[in-house]
Amino acid sequence: MQRKSFGNQQCPVGRSLERVGEWWSIEILREAYYGATRFDEFQKALGIAPNMLTRRLNSRVEAGLLRRRRYSEKPPRDEYVLTGIGRDFRSVVWSLIAWGNRHFAPEGASVQLVDRETGAVADPVLFDRNSGRIMTPREFRPGPGPAADERTRHRLARAAFMPQEAMP
Questions:
Q1: Spatial distance between the Cα atoms of 20 and 13, rounded to a whole number of angstroms
Q2: Least packed by Cβ within 10 Å: which of 6, 7, 23, 86?
């Protein structure tokens, strides 16, 4: 069975999933945020077979999330470093950490986001850079962008009229 491609969808969620959709991809990026750059570091942290890791690292490079940087000529060895696109995905991983701790860690958090200076535990929120306001479903909604086709505009029109009980 052939996997469906989301790369040509109008939806930015679908296009993003095309680059990071499988959970291994997010795990690889998480390890890159934790400082892994070399193949053996990723393999040790993830416990993944070398052939699978090679494929997944190659696909992250092709998607523009990582880039190869040569660190040894003899033997030839590359490390994998985050690109700007890969660094921009960090906030998504941080949100997953907070969400996972909140909903799926009854034993308590094993990883927390902390302030570098004070060590205080952080609780990330999404805010609008333009207004500085915290983004909640009561005050913000998805809306069509300038490139939206009619189908996308129709789907997003529903979001404008979501019932109050659907909003936290």
A1: 10
A2: 23
The per-residue pLDDT of the chain, averaged, comes to 87
Instruction: Give the type of residue at 134.
Output: I
The encoded tokens of residue 55 equal: 């494929």
Written as one string, the DSSP assignment of the chain is -PPPP-TT-S-HHHHHHHHH-SHHHHHHHHHHHTT--BHHHHHHHHT--HHHHHHHHHHHHHTTSEEEEEEETTTTEEEEEE-HHHHHTHHHHHHHHHHHHHHH-TT--SS--B-TTT-PBP----B-TTT--B--TTT------TT--HHHHHHHHHHTT--GGG--
Q: What is the pTM (predicted TM-score) of this model?
A: 0.80
Angle (CA) 55 77 30, round 5°: 50
As averages over each run of 10 residues, the pLDDT of the chain (168 residues) reads: 57 73 86 96 95 94 96 95 96 90 90 95 94 90 90 83 59
Tally the C-alpha atoms within 13 A of residue 136's C-alpha that lie toward its C-beta.
8
